[in-house]
Amino acid sequence: MNSNGTTTIELPTYKASDFASDQDVRWCPGCGDYAVLTGIRKALAKMPNKKEDYVFVSGIGCAARFPYYMETYGLHSIHGRSLAVATGVKMANPDLQVCIVSGDGDLLSIGGNHTLHALRRNIDLTIVLLNNEIYGLTKGQASPTSEVGKVTKSTPLGSVDQPINPLAFALASGATFVARSVDVDLKNFDVVYKRAMEHKGAALIEVYQDCNIFNHAIWFYASQKDTKADTTIVLEHGKPMVFGKDKDKGLRMIGSGFEVVELGGTYTEDDLWVHDETDRRVAFMLCQLEHPDFPEPLGVLYADTAKASHGMRIHQQLESELARPDAGDLQAMINGRSTWEIHG
Amino acid sequence: MSPKTNGAVAEAPLESVVIRFCGDSGDGMQLAGDQFTNTSALFGNDVATFPDFPAEIRAPRGTTYGVSAFQLQFSSNDIFTPGDTINAMVAMNPAGFKVNIDSVEDGGIVIVNSDEFDKGSLEKCGYEAGYNPLEDDAVSRKYKVFKVPMSRLTRESLAESSMGAKDIDRCRNMFALGISYWLYERPLEATIEHINTYYGVKKKRPEVAEANVKALKAGYFFGETAELFPSRYTVAPAKLEPGTYRRISGNEATAMGLVTAASKAGKKLFYGSYPITPASDILHTLAHLEHMNVLTFQAEDEIAAICSAIGAAFAGDIAATGTSGPGLALKSEALGLAVIYELPLVVVDVQRAGPSTGMPTKTEQADLLQAMFGRHGECPCIILAASSPADCYERAIEAVRLAVRHMCPVILLTDGSVANGAEPWKLPNIADIPAIKIEHPVHAGMAGEKFEPYVREPKTLARPWALPGTKGLEHRLGGLEKQMRTGAVSYDPDNHHEMIQLRANKVEKAADTIPPLTVRGNSSGDTLVLGWGGTYGTITSAGDKLRAMGRDVSTAHLHHLNPFPSNLGEVLGSFKRVIIPEINSGQLRMLIRAKYLVDVIGFNDVNGRGFFIDDLAERIVAVMDH
Fold first, then answer.
1. Peptide bond between residue B458 and the one before it cis (omega within 30 degrees of 0)
2. In chain B, which residues have their Cβ closer than 8 Å to the Cβ of A322?
3. What is the interface size between A and B, counted as CB pairs within 8 Å?
């Protein structure tokens, strides 16, 4: 303790490699998951938490092998249930930093219900949803995010199902932090991941992830150098929505929707919509902007830092109950309200 | 016999009385029965209860399927069941009368609310047009029927109340209770105190409290002044073991057992659950016990309930989940995960009649094989079963103790009758309950050694319970097969074979601390009646009765279904004949035959209710004399 009565905790300094477990990474060469693994290890090395306080949780699928590759605590659970398991971890020990990494099939199909409820409860978790629009581990069936018409092993005539928009789903479920990134874009991922981990509540990041075996190149428009500047827009809070290779395009609000405009002629930056990440209504509109009609938003679409997390509410209740005079009195508990004596 | 008030004669004290209150779901029969039980327990009787209600919250009024009943036996002896045949029935409407009259003994007392026996109500519950059982000579010859216009008398007694007609009619149950209190010479004080606390203080409706007390007293005074009942009856206090008692239901006992165990382990209790009949009361009870360091989590479904508990166990809580049969089916994949994670977890299954939704409010013992085998792969769990409401407390503590000792899930089977039934419970002295010792590793072992999460303690085969937050012990658990020391993913054939055996041996190891099976009666001889779970009371009573008649019958009751007590084989071998009565088609019998090659005789009634003592005794005799 120092002179002003506070304790300074020396945090260890980490390198990204400190977060690599001794297990060989077994994803297919060229899989987008590698970039995310690198991104998370690097981000953690820079964050002010102790390594032993991280718990990575996953369900089933290629992405769900993630915890095995992290030198942290981890649970590879069963298909779809990662968020339920993570909820228990976080409720039992709120000091732990709990992060879920799993795929679109795991989190939106078999586990869709748990995603909905973890988000609406605002449990202090970070969910990294690796969206490759396909079932990889089971070798190429349509997933809940596969586009209509998608030909896969299970939909030889083309998928007839409407896909889920993960971010719209998250917002509708009550998520207090919603963001998007692209697997190979480590710079944007780093920003978004750190914000998500720091967020006190349920944070969901959708990552466009390339499955180079069963659904290769579907995100290339958003990930390749020559196209991404025109097909995506990196959102920054308080900044006008400018995009394009030459920063010559922007999004303005017209009526109740967005419109792409060219800058330099009729329109200037002053005409563009300024990103306000606290505006949930606009976040709903943003997450539905789709290529090729619009640039697809990356970065933090929505962040509500005012809403109390589930953990805060639960532990407030628990603490106030534990302050009761009869707290912990087992004999009083079993005696209950009325007892009687039998004399010998 | 001595003269009593207004000509009623005090009969010689009775040993035991079985009374059943019945009426519509909304008639407050559970409350009336509950109060009669409390009063009798406080009076010093031994009591056992059987709440019997439909799954529908308010089935259409006056129908037979909307009948709600509460049966209790109160006695001056040690009793084990809520009784077979009914000595006295209070029926608030024709439907209640119709459903229950056949269970009343010949010459039994039947008190009816005659106001409800009108043409419409009689037809609604299926009596032929023009028929009224109260006018049937056959009925009045067979039973002592007392026709009391309870609706009218309640209304008259509350004529000055400010409450509406509907609220006034709701007090009829207290009027009926008052009559029964008079009939069996019960004091009114405990019920009056309850009414005042509940309605007056808690619900802040003093006018409702006042009306209910008035109706109760009016019923009591009606018994006293109306020259309707020729006799009054008494049941002396039971000679129970000296001590402090309370009344406890099985679900309350399970909840408090879990809390006690967590506290004895110095830990928080995490209970993840999804509402399901008849297990929800465990969640309700625990939700009120947050001050005992309990966190309850009402999950979005059964799967999330168990998964959250698994997560909590990983993070270091005493973790439990509770459900009934359909929920256990949903939890089975996650239970397999807990088995391969080797984390401590308690899963309570309050069994109900199946398959599928079955009969949710009726009891059954048909989940034993589901608990044993209802998971994919070879996936053994320790299985315990509670034999009575109070026994749930002991079993819940034992379940936690075994789960943490062996680092594995434990399934605790109770059932609808045990869970909802209540009995007097001699309160344990908390200080006498031993602590549950848990040691979490804090470092990897010898300096420089890497932590190996699947290295075992040889005596219990438990692996170390290393908690997240502990520096240097970072490790991953997964559903994939593990290398037997490091826990790393392994597809090695020999390793898998060995892990399968290790997980099975670990469950078997639990037998080291399981007490030997005790036999009631001779320890060897002609016939052993073996039971498990909620049939304890019936089997024990039938056995005691037959021995009193000089028959060579012993009884034994299993609380441990997997593993069995280590002396079970020896006990089975000490008898010429073994009978297992079960409320299923022979599940324990199948396990016993498979393991011990003993050709057990099964009595299998799958009726949602269970056995009656006399009937069981007769069937045992029939087998013995065959």
1. no
2. 290-291, 293
3. 213
> Which positions in chain B touch A91 (Cβ < 8 Å)?
270, 295, 297, 308, 311-312
For residue A7, pLDDT over 60 is answered with yes
Distance CA B7, CA A121 (A): 66
Cα–Cα distance measured from residue B145 to residue B139, given in angstroms and rounded to the nearest whole number = 8
pLDDT of residue A5: 58
Q: In this complex, which of A57, A60, A342 lies closest to B241 when CB atoms are compared?
A: A342
- Structural fold of domain B9-232: Pyruvate-ferredoxin Oxidoreductase; domain 3 (3.40.920)
Equal CATH topology for B9-232 and B519-625: no
Does the distance separating the beta carbons of B291 and A77 come in below 8 Å?
no
Choose which CATH entry (3.40.50.970, 3.40.50.720, 3.30.540.10, 3.20.20.70) describes domain B247-432. Answer: 3.40.50.970
Task: Note the pTM of the prediction, 2 decimals.
Answer: 0.93
Chain A residue numbers touching B314 (CB-CB < 8 A): 55, 73, 75, 85, 88-89, 92
> Is A52's CB within 8 Å of B472's CB?
yes
**pLDDT, tens only, A181-208:** 999 999 999 999 999 999 999 999 999 9
What residues in A contact B480, CB-CB < 8 Å? 76
Helix axes A186-198, A33-45, angle to 10 degrees: 60
For residue B238, the distance in angstroms to the closest alpha carbon of chain A comes to 9
- CATH code for the structural domain at B519-625: 3.40.50.920
CB B574 within 8 A of CB B596: no
User: Does domain A16-228 fall into CATH 3.40.50.720?
Assistant: no
Contact A344 B242 (CB under 8 A): yes
Could you please report the per-residue DSSP string of B412-442? Answer: EEEEHHHHH-EEEEE---GGGSPP-------
Q: Mean of the pLDDT values across residues B61-88?
A: 94
Which of A54, A44, A40 has the alpha carbon at shortest distance from A95? A54
Q: Hey, of B42, B194, B256, B292, which one would you mutate to test binding to chain A, going by the most A CBs within 10 A of its CB?
A: B292
pLDDT of residue A266: 95
Choose the mutation target among A24, A56, A89 for the interface with B, i.e. most B CBs under 10 Å. Answer: A89
**For residue B447, what pLDDT is reported?**
55
Residue B360, CA distances (Å) to B351, B418, B421, B535, B620 in order: 9, 14, 15, 18, 30
Domain ranges of chain A: 16-228
Q: What is the pLDDT of residues B589-615, one digit of tens each?
A: 999 999 999 999 999 999 999 999 999
Amino acid letter, B495: N
